[in-house]
Amino acid sequence: MNQNNTNNPIAILVINCGSSSVKFSLIQPHTGDTLLSGLAECLLTKQASITLKHAQEKTVLPLTSPFDHQSALAVLVQHLHDNNLVNMIKAVGHRVVHGGEKYAQPVLITAKVEQEINQLAALAPLHNPANLIGIKACKTAFSQLPQVAIFDTAFHQTMPEKAYLYGIPSTLYTEHGIRRYGFHGTSHYFVAKQAASLLNKPLSECHLISAHLGNGCSITAIKAGESVDTSLGMTPLEGVMMGTRSGDIDAGIIFHLVNKLGYNIDDVDTLLNKKSGLLGLSQLSNDCRTLEDAMLNSLDEKEQKQATLALRVFCYRIAKSIASYSASLTQLDALIFTGGIGENSSWVRAEIIKQLGLLNFFVCDEKNTAARFGQGGNIAKENARACLVIATNEEWVIAEQSAKLLEL
Ligand code: AMP
């Protein structure tokens, strides 16, 4: 293995491609140092722009026609050349959302792998096609570099049948792949590894419940270092309530919406994926910061009540989900909070933890208040079970796993 050192530094370009955006970072895989990062957004519109963060400077540039992913990568390639960063890049690592049952590990992208990612678009129609756009654009922009796919579903491939099967006719699984896959796997894996180091034991001996709380939210039970259950399902709509997604509802509500209230199936899709969750309940915002501010400071009584209710339902549903994973584990070392909300909102964490006293979770107010903006650690009261706040870093995992696959 080529040890990373200052004489011979290597870096992986990490790409997370959406239908109208490309998030990128240049990461040293052995240390996690980020040399450059940025985001191209509003792609395929005339407002398309790219933001580059490099050497503590932020540059925003408009993109030129055809305003697409390739236009964004052309600006990135030029910037990498101008700053002598090209030679150190040894591979491109792509976040790919759905790897189905086929991909439990990172893989070097070949024509066959691309074809399979395309086939898996049936299970992730919003994400896999966008990920493929990124792969194709990078193959053109970085034709000499190996491209690696890291799948968001991979970490959850260790789930047992009893956790991944739905209570529906088994032929829907055997013939159509309808089962629970889970997402946010890269994040849950990263924070589990960090937790192992905080707990001072190997990951393979750690028993954890990890709560990734951001715009999307998921809870994962980790037994001896492996995912044994997770709250997101065949699609990222199942499980706890999220920013705009409902999470679990009675499936009968869908029939009621269609049969009695005149919704068509696209309306239901939009309602449950884009208009529900914190946004739907509060009728105010999907953003936790905005809701906390309204709860604590709003002079409008109705607004204040709705924000409070939305946050309380959010926390209760998460607490219930965490408690339910005591059925998946036989031991429990710690609860982990990560994601934008989990890493920063002391109010949400306290509200969740105070409903989990039966599992011996008790929060230390002082430590909880201090744990935000990158400051993590154990926020539990003395003698209570550990509650760890850990900043996630999916990009580092993608860089590290790409380097490992390529033996860099
Ligand atoms: P993510 O999807 O992981 O980027 O997380 C986005 C969510 O994190 C949004 O709901 C934000 O409001 C929330 N968030 C970020 N910073 C804070 C903060 N300081 N307090 C509360 N919520 C926050």
Structure description:
This protein is an alpha/beta fold and 408 residues long. It has two domains: 11-151, Nucleotidyltransferase, domain 5 (2-Layer Sandwich), CATH 3.30.420; 200-394, ATPase, nucleotide binding domain (Nucleotidyltransferase, domain 5, 2-Layer Sandwich), CATH 3.30.420. The chain contains 15 helices and 14 strands. The protein has helices at residues 69-82, 111-119, 128-141, 161-164, 171-176, 185-199, 252-259, 265-274, 277-282, 288-297, 301-324, 339-344, 346-353, 365-370, 394-405, and strands at 11-17, 22-27, 34-41, 49-54, 57-62, 89-96, 107-108, 147-151, 208-213, 217-223, 226-230, 334-338, 377-378, 386-389. Strands 5-4-3-2-1-6-8-7 form an eight-stranded mixed β-sheet, with helices on both faces. The protein has a six-stranded mixed β-sheet with strand order 11-10-9-12-14-13, sandwiched between helices. α1 (69-82) packs across α3 (128-141) and α11 (301-324) crosses α13. The protein is globular. The site of adenosine monophosphate (AMP) has 13 residues, from α10 and α12.
Give the strand content. 15-25%
- State Rg: 22 Å
Total number of distinct structural domains: 2
Helix content: 25-40%
Derived structural class = alpha/beta
Secondary structure tally: strands: 14
* Name of the CATH architecture of the largest domain: 2-Layer Sandwich
Helices and strands, in N-to-C order? EEEEEHEEHHEHHHEEEHHHHHEHHHEEH
